[in-house]
UniProtKB/TrEMBL annotation:
This is N-acetyltransferase domain-containing protein. Signal peptide: none annotated. It comes from the Eukaryota. Residues 20-181 form the N-acetyltransferase domain. PANTHER family: GNAT FAMILY, PUTATIVE (AFU_ORTHOLOGUE AFUA_3G00765)-RELATED-RELATED. It holds the Pfam family Acetyltransf_3. It comes from Physocladia obscura. One of its GO terms (molecular function) is acyltransferase activity, transferring groups other than amino-acyl groups. SUPFAM superfamilies: Acyl-CoA N-acyltransferases (Nat) (SSF55729).
Length: 223
């Protein structure tokens, strides 16, 4: 019995760039920087980041599994790398040494948490999100990251619908989505159980085209 071919959106790895950032698939050598970012309580002030207590070894094992699930097209977790030429422009190199990786500085995580192919194979839905190191907040890094992920999803991977979910208490992320201007909030009471209500977003290409035009018009388009 032969194995079925991976879906069209599957890749062995992913990599794309913005003016300031490299977004690429997680590599095993990223484990130490990933542990620092996830384990820093300033990056998780509301306690919504999972796996914040994992060790370097545990993250390394998780990355090895991610490499396989990415190739199967189940998901596509990505890391956010600040390009080396940005150091000295807006940031002190001394602040970044612990975050150094081979192609820049590891400042966050993003990507496609899941892919769901519709029953008619005509729709491809993906859930996305982003976590940015606290040193790089209020610099539109998260907005630049999500813009790039959405563009890549629509234009390269063939995503037809994007979804996002957060806790209603996550005011910074809700503000980020308002700046992105792409979808109306849908509240699910008790969506996170005892942790509170869930806020959901969903949008397709048509909504994204309008949001993109508005971002360009307001000088908030960073690609």
């Amino acid at each position: 019995m032969t194995e079925s071919a991976p879906p069209a959106h599957a890749r062995a790895s992913h990599r794309f760039e913005t003016p300031r950032l490299i977004l690429r698939s997680t590599e095993v050598d990223d484990a130490e920087a990933l542990t620092l970012v996830y384990g820093d309580p300033l990056n998780n002030p509301l306690g919504f980041v999972i796996d914040d207590k994992r060790s370097v070894a545990e993250h390394r094992a998780s990355i090895e599994k991610q490499i396989l699930s990415t190739a199967r097209g189940e998901n596509a977790w990505l890391v956010v790398i600040l390009k080396p030429d940005q150091v000295g422009v807006s940031y002190k190199e001394s602040d970044l040494q612990q975050l150094h990786v081979h192609d820049g500085f590891f400042i966050g995580c993003t990507g496609f948490n899941s892919f769901r192919i519709g029953p008619d194979s005509a729709t491809l839905t993906s859930d996305i999100g982003a976590v940015i190191h606290h040193l790089f907040r209020k610099r539109a890094m998260a907005l630049e990251t999500l813009q790039a992920v959405i563009e890549y999803g629509f234009s390269v991977l063939g995503v037809t619908v994007f979804t996002l979910e957060t806790n209603a208490r996550n005011v910074p992320f809700r503000a980020l989505m308002e700046r992105l201007g792409v979808a109306v909030e849908q509240i699910t009471e008790g969506g996170f159980g005892q942790e509170g209500d869930a806020v959901n977003y969903q949008f397709g290409m048509d909504e994204w085209k309008v949001a993109k035009q508005n971002l360009i018009a307001s000088n908030k388009w960073y690609l």
